Amino acid sequence: MATSEAAGEAFEQLPAALLATIMTKLDVSSIRSLASTCTVLRSCASQILHFLPNFHLLDVALSINLLRPLLPPNPYLRSLKVDCSKLDDLSIEDLVRPSLHDLSLHNCSDFSGKLLSQIGGQCKDLRSLYLGCVADKRGRSVHISNLEELLRGCTELKTLSLMFDISLFPRYNFARAWSSASENLTSLEIGYVSSVMVTELLSPNVGPNQPPDLLRPSILPSLQRLCLSVDYITDTMVETISKGLINLTHLDLRDAPIIEPRVSFDLTNASLQQINQHGKLKHLSLVRSQEFLITYFKRVNDLGILLMADRCSSMESICLGGFCRVTDSGFKTILHSCSTLYKLRVSHGMLLTNLVFLDISATSLSLTHVSLRWCNLLRNQAIISLASNLDLRVLDLRDCRNLRDEALQAISTLHKLKILLLDGTDITDAGLTYLRERVIGSLVSLSIRGCKRLTDKCISALFDPSSKQELQELDLSNLPNLSDNGIFSLAKSRVPILELRMRQCPLIGDISVMALASMQVDDDRSHGGSLRVLDLYNCGGITSLSFRWLKKPYFPRLRWLGVTGSLNRDMVDALARSRPFLHVAGHGEELGTDHWDGLYMHDNEELDELEQWLLEGEDESDDEEMEDVDNNGEMV
To answer: What pLDDT is attached to residue 635?
Structure first.
C-alpha cells in the first residue's frame, strides 16, 4: 500500500496532459492495467477514454453494460475493433460513430441488417470495414437494401470484408447494389456467395433482365485483392474475374461443393490459361474444400498448370488445393517458372512425389512458407531437399503419413523456423530429439497431433528446462500413449505456452490439470502459467476433480477451455458463470479461430487486469456458486 501511495504522489507531480499523451499510445488493456495501480492513473484512464484514437478489444466479448462505460462520447475515435458475441441491435448506436475510419465487428450473429444500414448512414469517412457472422442467429436477416445503404453511404471505403452468407440476396438486385460501391475499394472479402452472382456482378453486359446491348460501367475498377468463398469455382467466373479486374494482385478462391460439379460448373484447363491476363497478379489461391463432399478438380491436369505458369512467372505466392490429376511435371513447372515464389501451399496433391523437390537447390527460389498437407506420396527425401531453403519459417506437413525421423533430421537445420506442423506423420520420440538442439528454441508453434508412435518421452525429447523457449502454441492431441507423466514433465520445463491442446488423449486425467494449474513461468507468481487456451476435450481421465483446479486463482489468463460437456453439465455451467470471460466449449469444436493462420501476441497479464477492473466486486457470489456445485458433486 505504501508503494502504491508513493507512486501516486510521484505521478501527481507530472502534468496531466503528459500522462494523457503517454496513455493514448497504449491499447485498452494496457490502459486499464495502469489504471489499477493508483488513483492518479485511474482518474487519467477514465478521462482518456473521451479522446482515445483506437479502441481494440477482440480477446474478450463484453456485454453492453460492461462495454458502454468504456466507450463514452469520443469525437477523436478513429479505429474500433470489438467482439460482438454478447451484443445485438440495441448496441448499434454505441458502436457506429461518424468519426470512425476503421471498424471491425466480429461475431455479429445477433445483429440484423440494420447494422449495415446504420454504418452506411453514420460512417461517411470509413476506410476499412470488417463484419463477421452478421444475422447468423435464427430470426435475424439481412436484406439487399441494407447492403445498398452501406455501399451508398461509405463512399471512402478501401477495404471491405463481409464475412457472412450473401448468396441469399436476390440476383436481379445484387449487381445494382454494387454499382454505388466506392471507386477507391482495393480489397474485397466475402464469406459466401454464389459463383453466378460473382459472374453477373463483374460482367459488363451480363445480368438478369438486362438487354444484351446495354453495357454497365466497370464495377470495382480499383480492386487489387479479392477473396471469395463460393459454391463452385467455375471457368466462367475465373475468366470474368481475370478479364474484368485489371488491377488485381491477390486472388483467393475457395469452394466446397455439396454435389459433384458438372462440367459447366467446374474449373478446367481452359480458364487457367486466362489467369493473370494483365500481368499484375502476385498471389493466387485456388482451393476445393472437402467440407461436405470428397471431391477434386478432376478436369485440370498438367497441361492446365503449364498454361497458367506461362503467365505467372512473377507470382510470389501460390496455393493449390484439390488438384488430384496434377503430377510432378505440373508442380515442377511452377517451381521452375516462378523465380520470385516464396510461399507454396499444396493440399490433397495426390500425385505429388519426392521428384518435385529433387533439384530445388538448383533453382533461385528462397521459400519461406511451405505447406504440403495430405500429400501422402511424399517421403523423407522430399523434406531433405526442401531443407536447402534455410530461410523457411513455416513448414506444414500435416497428414503426410510416410514421413519419418529422417525428415526431422533435415528439419533440424532450419534455425529460422517458427511454425512446424507434423500431424499424423510417422515420427518417434527419438526423432524429436533432432529438433531440440537448434529448432525448438526458435519455434513459436508446434503440432504433433495424431503421431501415434509418440509417448511421454516426447516431452523430455523436446524440452530442456535449462534452455530458453519461445514456444507459444503446442498441440499434443490424439496421442494414445501420452499420459499424466508427460504433462507433468511439461509443467516442470516451465515453457511459456499460451495455447495447449491435448484433446482425445485417453490417458490424460486430473493429475495433468493439477500439474498445469501449479505451473509457474519465469518470475510470474500466478498459478497456471501463461495459458490462454486449454483443450481437454474427450481426455479419458478428466473428472469433476479437475474443475476445482480450473477455478480462480488458477489459470488467471485462460480465455478458452475445451471439455467434454456431458462430463458434469452443472459443473461446466457453474464454471462458465464464475468466469464470464472464459469461453467454455463442450461440444468438441476447435477452440478459437484457425489457430495456425495467426499467432496470439497479446499481453495476457493486461487482459487479466482488465477483467479485474470490469468485474470489480462481482466475483464472490459466482465463486460461492461454484463451491456449492463442487460440494454437491462430492456428495454424489
So the answer is: 35
Give the side-chain half-sphere CA count within 13 A for 388.
Answer: 13
CB neighbourhood size of 327 (10 A): 18
Lowest mean pLDDT among 154-168, 189-203, 554-568: 554-568
DSSP H/E element including 515: helix 510-518
Place of cell 477523436: 76
From first CA to last CA, the distance across the chain in angstroms is 44
Peptide bond before residue 73 is cis, with ω within 30 degrees of 0 = no
- Is 288's pLDDT higher than 80? yes
Report pLDDT for 587: 85
Cell numbers that stand for 635 in this block: 456428495
Per-residue pLDDT, 532: 92
Residue 2 DSSP code: H
- Residue 191 CA to residue 166 CA, distance in Å, equals 8
C-alpha cell at 45: 484512464
What is d(CA 382, CA 549) in angstroms, rounded to the nearest whole number? 45
Q: Which of 599, 473, 477, 493 is nearest to 535 (CA)?
A: 477
Cell numbers representing residue 230 in the block: 463460393
- Run of H or E including 229: strand 225-230
Q: Is the pLDDT of residue 218 over 60?
A: yes
Q: Which of 375, 363, 300 is nearest to 335 (CA)?
A: 363
Q: DSSP of 423-456, one letter per residue?
A: TT----HHHHHHHHHHTTTT-SEEE-TT-TT-BT
Q: Which pLDDT score, from 0 to 100, does residue 330 have? A: 97
